[in-house]
Write a structure and sequence with these properties.
2 copies of one chain form a homodimer.
Chain A: H1 2-8, H2 10-13, H3 18-34, H4 37-45, H5 55-62, H6 73-93, H7 102-116, H8 138-151, H9 155-163, H10 170-178, E1 190-193, E2 201-208, E3 215-222, E4 235-240, E5 243-246, H11 268-273, E6 283-284, H12 294-297, E7 303-309, E8 313-320, E9 328-336, E10 345-353, E11 358-364, E12 369-373, E13 377-379, E14 383-386, E15 396-402, E16 408-415, E17 418-425, E18 431-437, E19 450-459, E20 462-471, E21 473-475, E22 480-482, E23 488-496, E24 500-507, E25 512-518, E26 527-530, E27 533-536, E28 539-544
Antiparallel strand pairs in A: 1-2, 2-3, 3-4, 4-5, 6-11, 7-8, 8-9, 9-10, 10-20, 11-19, 12-16, 13-15, 14-15, 15-18, 16-17, 17-20, 18-19, 21-22, 23-24, 24-25, 25-28, 26-27
Helix pairs in contact in A: 3-4, 3-6, 6-7, 6-8, 8-9, 8-10
Chain lengths: 545, 545
């Protein structure tokens, strides 16, 4: 087996990739058993012992200081097993290497960070190529048990309780023995940095509420993520009521089902899922970010701009200047808890700066049934055609095309027992497309999910303002419907410069939510003043009665 | 209140309809309290005390001897409350009327029969206008508690346990007190007769397995069912794995949601849901049964033909000669438990007899994702149009059109963790349409569910043979896929006359399931012989090695 991994597949053995980790873990474990200390060195520092390959370099390169694995949570789960198992073997044989302390304890952080990259029910965020996996997966049983044995973190025990099994080892035994002292696992509002040194973008997670009413808002501004990465800079997903509401489509499904492309990823994974239009982010001129060039995309990551975590307001903001030549995209997401809304509300300010005119498309892939729009639309009820011809557009049917008559274009849908309204700022050029995934799909591979797409057909700089609101309750069994309409009555963009945004969201009870944002000074101590608006720090949120 | 119900709304008071039951129950309860025995008589026998209206006549006319309520299970649930509550009031005040013994105890049968008209999880079959209701609904809490107080049937206690509440009364108290002695509720294979005298058709329910693996096959051959009835003679639905697999669409949704048509039934309830093409049954020449004439339809019901309930084979068979002029439809459903299949298999023999040539469409509304077909098809991947122009056809998009190259046209889909294959007998004229609900739907009212539709474009007498098979297991979390392919390798219709059908279903292990059916002699003691096939009784099922 060592010959196979070390000699016949040397390239994989030395590769900085999870495939390499599986190889060095296997060879390393054999070598410890056989007492081959030279070969152990090669698994740790590469076949030439230079440190350019091997386990240590893999830890250095593949994990950020925050414990984020470059390929994203779905593959982080997968890779965790060889990393943790081999680390545990190293610790058992050579405790003096302090492998779990290496890089500020990053291997253990990888476990707790991965647990944070989940919905409240444990489903991993569907970033990059991702399918249906949760923290109940086998790799996380290993991860949680090993991490608990080293940290004694009692929050891990409540994950172990949900997993309802342990590994057959001293670590597993300890978890089983201590299970009664479990403490609730708390999902955090946090920033998870990407890149070996933590400076290649990251993920912002905003949370509010607990249990079934936990809300999560995710901003993805990571680096590309190698072969499983998607072209989705500044993409946004939203979870509520134990469901994915504004979805990341993830990978094209049916993995391991032989009648579907032999059980491999489907071709639609490349033609739709990885493309920008498959995500809740901006597409310029119907081209994907970095023109769908993975090599090019791998050279850049968006910049972190700001983060805020207070009781009432959570915020994350990031800027990308490379995904589209000549276009700066600056997206800021707020999650706001205020009694003017019955539930936490999301405000999405997407500033696009460009000297040239472009077509801008901003889709929101909602999951649910369309209930109501405030704008008229032409529905294509007897003939239907595609949104475009390439870059994923060929996979979208246009079901209807709307033209807002006011500055507010609101779309209400129902998901489970709850209503959601996407309230969008519109101008006289704005077009609203109601699309559905499933065009150019002769094998019925794609899920036929809907989206609302805002299009500015020909604009230079432009600011998209969107408010996402959960409201009401529908119970077909008890036969009641509460609050099926949105409470937003208008959205106004009062200041829109390259330095500042000031937005007012008027609510039906007459109150106004006012948001002020500084776009190019993240200093929280800076005072700002523009046209009579004054605030301190990056952002200011207030309610005006 | 009495003046309002009795004088101002006399027509409703005297009506043989659930609205009349609410009226007489209200007036009757008031009259008992006020000691107005004359008015009590009027609630029981109609405003003129002739017996042409009133509660007794409502019981006579609206319930079959088997306790089936003419409008179907969803409305049976709704109507049960005034029937049972008023009956309980009558019993409390005038026990000598023996109201619960009336018509062989039909009011109590109505409770137990309704509990049988459910999936294993308690959802009522979606026959006629039906939405999302289960035996957990309030009316059934009343029904179960009152029925238990009168019958002491301990199976009812396990329903009460699932309901997890009781009514605030002596009856509810008794249920609460006895709850520990609950016995499991058993879903039966049974025939439920429709019509005041039990001779207006009915419902056949075939079951196999228990709990999560309970399978149910339902053949609907009832009378029309008044204003909430559908034009769906001999429609078939199939449940497995705690899910509806071949669905009855039921009523158009969003009831009580004000932004959707003011909370009323949607117009698509009339233009799609009630039409024949919305159901898993035969449409002749693109017209609905009885040409969508409710008055006409209300005059007829299909005939019961045969029923069988043995350990290995369950069967129900019914004939309709009125829904389509000049066309006899005879459908026979088998649910067969035999080790040649890994799970119980459904065989559907649909014999159509007609001297004239017609177009025959037989759809199957499957719920799930298409995995595989054995026939080539042309998929409409860039432009899409409708199946037809009226009678519900205008609500169906044609996604693909297939032309089977052999006598077997199999369609495999995935629902939850399980695969299903519909294996259809095809001839050189057979066309297979893969349709999706949602055309001509400007308000996005319809669910976008798929169907497989078999079309014989120009045939006189014709026999459809279909086999529905559940198989395999898919677990994306544990990453395994078992048995994703059907085990049926061929279907042969060896005898096809107006008297007999002989079908052989060949399974991949080389075994053959042979089914012989007599079409016009339901005598179970009759011997039959045709072309070397011999059997006794209506049907014979055997496995040939």
């Amino acid at each position: 087996m060592v010959r196979f991994f070390y000699e016949e597949n040397r390239e994989t053995f030395d590769r900085i990739h999870n495939h390499g980790t599986w190889a060095v873990a296997a060879v390393g474990m054999i070598s410890y058993v056989m007492g081959d200390t030279d070969m152990v060195e090669r698994t740790l520092y590469g076949s030439d012992k230079s440190g350019k390959g091997g386990f240590i370099r893999q830890i250095d390169q593949l994990f950020s200081p925050d414990g984020y694995f470059e390929e994203g949570p779905y593959y982080q789960r997968y890779s965790l097993q060889p990393f943790l198992t081999f680390a545990q073997v190293i610790r058992n044989n050579e405790p003096q290497r302090k492998i779990f302390e290496y890089k500020d304890g990053v291997l253990l952080k990888a476990v707790t960070t991965l647990l944070q990259l989940t919905e409240n029910n444990g489903q991993f965020f569907h970033l990059n190529d991702a399918l249906d996996k949760t923290w109940h997966s086998n790799e996380l049983v290993w991860g949680v048990d090993i991490a608990y044995s080293l940290t004694g973190d009692k929050q891990l025990l409540s994950i172990a309780r949900e997993q309802n099994r342990v590994i057959i080892s001293e670590e597993g035994f300890r978890v089983a023995k201590d299970i009664e002292s479990a403490q609730p696992f708390i999902h955090q509002t946090m920033i998870v940095r990407d890149g070996p040194d933590g400076n290649k973008g990251g993920i912002g997670i905003l949370r509010s509420g607990t249990g079934k009413d936990e809300v999560a808002v995710v901003l993805k501004y990571t680096s590309h993520g190698m072969g499983h990465g998607h072209f989705d800079k500044l993409s946004f997903t939203y979870y509520d009521n134990s469901r994915e509401i504004l979805q990341d489509y993830g990978a094209a499904r049916f993995l391991n089902i032989e009648p579907k492309n032999g059980g491999h990823y489907l071709k639609e994974n490349d033609t739709f899922c990885k493309h920008t239009i498959g995500h809740n982010t901006l597409v310029v001129d119907e081209k994907s970010h970095f023109d769908y060039d993975m090599k090019l995309s791998s050279g850049y990551a968006p910049e972190f701009y700001a983060f805020r975590n207070t009781e009432k307001v959570k915020m994350v903001s990031s800027v990308d200047k490379n995904a589209v030549p000549g276009v700066t995209m600056h997206r800021t997401l707020f999650l706001i808890d205020d009694p003017v809304f019955s539930r936490p509300v999301v405000v999405d300010l997407f500033k696009v700066i460009s000297p040239e005119k472009h077509q801008y498309d901003l889709p929101f892939y909602y999951l649910g049934q369309l209930i109501h729009t405030t704008y008229p639309y032409e529905a294509f009820t007897t003939q239907r055609s595609l949104l475009g011809e390439s870059n994923g557009y060929q996979h979208l049917w246009v079901e209807a095309k709307g033209k807002p008559e006011t500055h507010l274009a609101a779309t209400t849908f129902l998901n489970g027992n709850r209503f959601y309204t996407l309230s969008s700022l519109a101008d006289s050029h704005t077009e609203v497309y109601l699309n559905r995934i499933g065009g150019t799909d002769p094998d019925f591979n794609l899920r036929n999910d809907p989206s609302v797409m805002l299009r500015q057909p020909y604009a230079s700089s432009h600011t998209f303002v969107n408010v996402v609101e959960a409201h009401g309750d529908y119970d077909p069994r008890a036969e009641y419907t509460i609050e099926p309409y949105s409470s937003v009555s208008s959205i106004q963009l009062l200041i829109d410069t390259e330095e500042y945004l000031v937005v007012q969201v008027e609510v039906k009870n007459g109150k106004i939510l006012e948001i002020c944002l500084s776009l190019n000074n993240p200093d929280e101590k800076q005072n700002h003043a523009v046209s009579g608006y004054q605030w301190r720090g990056v952002s200011s949120i207030q309610v005006i009665n």
